[in-house]
Design brief:
The structure holds 2 protein chains of 2 kinds.
Chain A lengths: L4 E3 L2 E4 L5 E6 L6 E7 L5 E8 L14 E5 L5 E5 L8 E8 L10 E2 L3 E5 L1
Parallel strand pairs in A: 2-10
Antiparallel strand pairs in A: 1-3, 3-7, 4-5, 4-8, 6-7, 8-9, 8-10
Chain B lengths: L2 E4 L3 E5 L4 E3 L1 E4 L4 E8 L5 E7 L5 E3 L5 E5 L4 E6 L8 E9 L6 E2 L3 E6 L1
Parallel strand pairs in B: 2-12
Antiparallel strand pairs in B: 1-4, 3-9, 5-6, 5-10, 7-8, 8-9, 10-11, 10-12
Classes of the chains: A mainly beta, B mainly beta.
């Protein structure tokens, strides 16, 4: 079946502009995560959505970052007034919630953001 | 609290020789442990996961890992490296019953011809 998809695959923007990154999770996966991966670094947790519960936004680095998930499916990560340090690969992952907690995340290919 | 440490940022092996990527974890609760691989400009792909059913876990592409509670380790091994194994590998820990995943900083595997 279809995996997690993200768009665009690459985004180049000028400092100060706003950007929107999109994630389409696997159908039926109620949990959705956003991560940021900077060059040579591990994955930095940004935000977590689970069903209709309030999202865990504890990883968002500043108030310029926001995310929403409409209808429990597609999610959009918005970065306002982009800065050069926002340049990174933004990864989305979804997960099927089951009774156990051993199920894994499925990752999209990522969006590479470059802020000039 | 949970944490994960990947002991080597870079590992180089010759094609056909064994691979060992080391991972140590810390978890207050029964951990779930995972290894993911990331090829250049690609997303992360699951290699294997520890679910407490067996301490020796076999994954895709000939990889396996052994959960050693006494050593708090979950090292990734493969008997014979292929050129296609060159990639970045991430060890991940999650405490049972939680939704947070903690990623290691990654080990870049280089396979020499």
């Amino acid at each position: 079946g279809a995996g997690v998809s993200q768009s665009p695959s690459n985004k180049v923007t000028e400092k100060g502009k706003d950007v929107e990154l999109r994630c389409d999770p696997i159908s039926g996966h109620t949990a959705l995560y956003w991560y940021r991966q900077s060059l040579g670094q591990g994955l930095e947790f940004l935000i977590y959505f689970q069903g209709n519960s309030a999202p865990d936004k504890s990883g968002l680095p500043s108030d310029r970052f926001s995310a929403e998930r409409t209808g429990g499916s597609v999610s959009t990560l918005t970065i306002q007034r982009t800065q050069q340090e926002d340049s990174a690969v933004y990864l989305c992952a979804s997960r099927q919630m089951r009774g156990d907690s051993y199920n894994e995340q499925f990752f999209g290919p990522g969006t590479r953001l470059t802020v000039l | 609290a949970q944490s994960v440490t990947q002991l080597d940022s870079h590992v180089s092996v010759s094609e056909g020789t064994p691979v060992l990527l080391r991972c140590n974890y810390s978890s207050s609760y029964s951990p779930s442990l995972f290894w993911y691989v990331q090829h250049p400009n690609k997303g992360l792909q699951l290699l294997l996961k520890y679910t407490s059913a067996a301490t020796l876990v076999k994954g895709i592409n000939g990889f396996e890992a052994e959960f050693k509670k006494s050593e708090t380790s979950f090292h990734l091994t493969k008997p014979s490296a292929h050129m296609s194994d060159a990639a970045e590998y991430f060890c991940v820990v999650s405490a049972s019953g939680t939704y947070k995943y903690i990623f290691g900083t990654g080990t870049r595997l280089k396979v020499l011809a």
